[in-house]
Amino acid sequence: MSAAVNPPIVFTQDELGWVSWIEPLPEAELTERHFAGLVDRSRAKSEYFRLLVRDPEVLEARTKTDKDIFYNVADGLPRAERELAAAATSRYNGCIYCASVHARFASTYSKRRDDVQRLLDEGIKADLGERWNAVVKASVALAATPIAFGPDNIEELRRAGLDDAEIVDVINGASFFNWANRLMLSLGEPSK
Amino acid sequence: MAPTDIIDTLAGIEPGSALDGIRARRLQARENAQKSYLSLFEPIDAGDVSLLERAAVAAFVTGLHGETPVVAFYRDKLAATADGARLVEAIEVEIARGKTSGPYGSFPAGPLSVENTAGLIFRVSAERRSGLGARLVAALEHAHLLVFRPRDAASADMQALLAAGWSNTGIVTFSQLVAFLSFQVRVVSGLRTLAAVNA
Question: Nearest Cβ partner of A145 from B28, B39, B64?
Answer without folding.
Answer: B64
